């Protein structure tokens, strides 16, 4: 009896008749995630890739077979791409609650990307590191419970108009996996 009293005094929760269970850990963050962006007709027009680089998240987008021009591109908060308007991808990924655009004094969303310039050969690419971004699968991260998507818009992003840079309709979308 004296032994138990001594143990109870040393443990803040008192004596337990069973040892604590194993610690439940979150699954490790993946090394990378990829997305095939499809247009409304279901044709693959670009490939996206996410990877962790130190304390930053690297986003890469490679387009092929698109019309020449300049297009807005963003990482969106929901991993769904239901045609025809891809609205199911939700708003831009914005875990810090900022306004839109690098030129907005109250911006920018973490999901804001540079414009995608597509040449006469139908190809274009973006590569950017997002400081503070993470591949971890928990709240506020790129791969949270509902995932994320990458979207190409019909017009260039003006980098200041909230919420989407006046970049128009969503014309291609891909879910990161």
Tell me about this structure:
- The protein has 177 residues and is mostly beta strands.
- It has a single domain, classed as Immunoglobulin-like (Sandwich).
- 5% of the residues lie in helices and 31% in strands.
- The chain has 1 helix and 9 strands; from the N terminus they run αβββββββββ.
- The strands form 2 sheets. Strands 5-8-9-1-2-3-7 form a 7-stranded antiparallel sheet, with no helix packed on it.
- A hairpin with a 2-residue loop joins β2 (44-53) and β3.
- It is globular, with a radius of gyration of 22 Å.
- Residues 1-16 have low confidence and may be disordered.
**Count of helical stretches:** 1
Shape: globular
Strand content: 25-35%
Weakly predicted, low-confidence segments = 1-16
- Strand line-up in the sheet with most strands: 5-8-9-1-2-3-7
Order of helices and strands: HEEEEEEEEE
Gap from first CA to last CA: 57 Å
Tell me, what is the CATH class? Mainly Beta
Profile the largest sheet: 7 strands, antiparallel
Radius of gyration: 22 Å
CATH topology: Immunoglobulin-like
Helix content: under 10%
How many β-strand runs? 9
CATH architecture: Sandwich
Mean pLDDT: 86
The structure class reads mainly beta
Question: Which superfamily, in CATH terms, is the homologous superfamily?
Answer: Superoxide dismutase, copper/zinc binding domain
Number of domains: 1
In a nutshell, what does this entry contain?
The chain contains one helix and nine strands, in the order H-E-E-E-E-E-E-E-E-E. The protein has 177 residues and is mostly beta strands. The chain has a single domain (32-175), classed as Sandwich (Immunoglobulin-like).
